Write the structure tokens for this entry.
Amino acid sequence: MNGISGAAHLAGVIGSPVSHSLSPRLMGHWIQALDLDAAYVPFAVEASGLDVFLAGIAKSQLMGVNVTLPHKEKVLALADTASDAAKRIGAANLLTFDGDKIHADNTDAPGFLAALKPANIKYRQSTALVLGAGGAARALVYALLTSGISRLILTNRSRGRAEQLVDDLAPMAAVVDWDQKDNVLGEADLVVNATALGLNGDQPLKLDWSKARSGAVAFDSVYTPLNTQYLADARKAGLTVVDGLDMLIGQARPSFRAFYGREAPILPPVRPVLLKALGEKA
Ligand code: NAP
């Protein structure tokens, strides 16, 4: 299709800043692959103007928007209704509009499980060690609970935040001190970095991978860079590794369905497009 018509299906992503977001490329690739009369655009929205902006676009012809930092928590309070997942996680990354009503949802949780699917984890017989207790950790812990994970161990630099997460979401989880993380590594079938450590090549998350269980899987929510030191070390120790880009793709699929009423196509694959945008080798 050449351009879009006046009846095009429109959606977008809001954040501050939003210029780094890969979502327009991701959604644009799928729109093009399906030759849809549709568009997906980035909106830079300051926190101070978020309520006015949302009230305006909810009444427009936009089908909805994705939400990135720093608005994921605030939009939940501004929505008229919210899914159970968004409420329990305490954050939303997908808003859909119906008339002037805003519905909030969280697709980070299913996105994480979609990324892990090829690793074939038997959740009901597995222990997960989650490092971190921020917004991403809350979504990943929620996902692990919905998958029926047998045992959860949480650790965070600020222990109080991990305890709060357990109180809010996962009473069955155990909290260990941050300096004890290497001592529980050997109990985990799945090791999840949900901290910001390693982001943009800054201070990496270092673990003593020699203590890891054989056959364990390491996941990193960070995807800039793609090959973090955490994943490189885990791979070197023989673990199966899953990077955060697959979660980004996984969280976008339900959003695409909600905006455009179609399943995002598997082919042509979107991952090489995103790798190119990140300056990473395919
Ligand atoms: P957040 O709410 O700000 O939480 C940051 C987390 O990192 C907290 O647990 C914090 O610990 C920890 N942390 C930060 N600096 C640390 C340090 N120097 N040492 C130890 N721990 C440190 O951020 P978030 O939204 O949860 O995001 C976390 C990561 O997930 C980010 O890298 C983000 O890019 C990524 N993410 C990826 C996807 C995806 O689709 N792949 C989606 C969402 C988020 P304290 O509580 O002690 O400060």
